[in-house]
């Protein structure tokens, strides 16, 4: 009876047919994304492979400018591949190959101060949302997740009393449904409030809160473990450990997830780092 119920649920929600789960967490100037490697058809295991993600160009992953984002696509595998190719082609048509994945520094209003010549994680989220909504009559059964680091300027007074500015990074998390409905952390309202406080006090930009987001077959378990494990202002090592523990705790209780996992850790100092995580294979 339990298997029939699970099969009926998967028929009603094609995004869960091939299984798989995804979890993202934000820390202090860093963000982590974990995806499992199970590819199945219902309760049957078909293959074990790394999930498809879109990364910045290799020249941008470890550069000093740290123009970073990661796009994870979760759902029906055929639609995942179709959306991945459509997104790549659309980005190449809209932006030259040399600027794909570049993230410009935000000005005090939260806008790109180079005329939007480069694509930020927030702009990429809006672009992906538009692609999905454009197919609302025949939607892709895919749930994208976009994480990244948004550069912003902080202004403070030095020892001589002069105002100086520096670039820091704000974690950005965004998930959306198959119609492109956005759930952003932080939202534009949060950024506007932070920028208003900065303009009033001429001090460091307070970082709007970004916590975690998850999607996939193990969402009921992921929300619980992520809420229990997450805490604010984690450094990169603590964030990687916490995100991995929360993901493992949830996936070990879900038969449609697991079989290994891969973590993408984005930091303002080292760029994109990739780690493989061992999980249960049963």
From TrEMBL:
One of its GO terms (biological process) is proteolysis involved in protein catabolic process. SUPFAM superfamilies: N-terminal nucleophile aminohydrolases (Ntn hydrolases) (SSF56235). InterPro entries: Ntn_hydrolases_N, Proteasome_sua/b, Proteasome_suB-type. It holds the Pfam family Proteasome. GO terms for cellular component: cytoplasm; proteasome core complex. This is Proteasome subunit beta.
